[in-house]
Amino acid sequence: MCDTEREGRAVYAQFKRVMDMMELEYGEDKDEYTLFLEIATNDFPVRLFIRIEWECGRVSIYSHLPFEVGESTREVTNMAVAVCNINQKLWMGNFDYMYSVKSVLYRLNINYRSSILSDDVIKTALFLSHAAIDKYDDKLYLLSKGKIKVEDVTK
Questions:
Q1: Which of 26, 30, 97, 129 could anchor a disulfide with 37, C-beta 3.0 to 4.6 Å?
Q2: Which residues form the domain of 97?
Q3: What is the pLDDT of residues 37-75, one digit of tens each?
Q4: Contacts of 153 (CB under 8 A, 6+ apart)
Q5: Beta bridge partners of residue 47, listed in sequence order
Q6: pLDDT, tens digit, for every residue of 72-126?
Q7: Whole-prediction pTM value?
């Protein structure tokens, strides 16, 4: 086993330990160094993934929001503008509008190579991921259905 994989396994174990301390229920795919948990939002059940990408020394926390964005120029433009506006307000992480698959992804990456990843950083990353998804998932969904205007997403 190489040093980068050993370091990745240690980060994976640390995430599990912190999530156990937080009393979070989660599943795992050990072969893919991935943990996943269902997070409750005010609107949708959302699955949050935590993937240790040991080859590049990164933790990727991400979630695909459970709706599709339409194909019209207006729907595409509105979603792209809304995602940009939201990202300007976030402290950590970002939303990505993935035009090719008509979906919105939340993502937060943490590089850990040659550094110490504290339990507090892990807790903060999990908290901020949940908070961002919870705050914006319903607004992005309503925008995708034409129920609100793009400027209402960040109000």
A1: 26
A2: 3-152
A3: 998 877 778 899 999 999 999 999 999 999 999 999 999
A4: 82, 85, 86, 136, 139, 140, 143
A5: 38
A6: 999 999 999 999 999 999 989 999 999 999 999 999 999 998 788 899 999 999 9
A7: 0.91
108 DSSP β-pair partners: 61
CATH number at residue 101: 3.30.1460.10
Query: To which residue do tokens 């960040």 refer?
Result: 154
Cβ partners under 8 Å of residue 46, min gap 6: 38, 39, 63, 65, 66, 133, 137
* Contact of 78 with 85, CB cutoff 8 Å: no
Which two tokens mark 58? 């990164």
Number of domains composing the chain: 1
Kindly list the distances between the CA atom of residue 78 and the CA atoms of 94, 98, 140, 154, in Å, as whole numbers in the listed order.
17, 13, 10, 13
Q: Using alpha carbons, select from 112, 115, 79 the residue that is nearest to residue 96.
A: 79
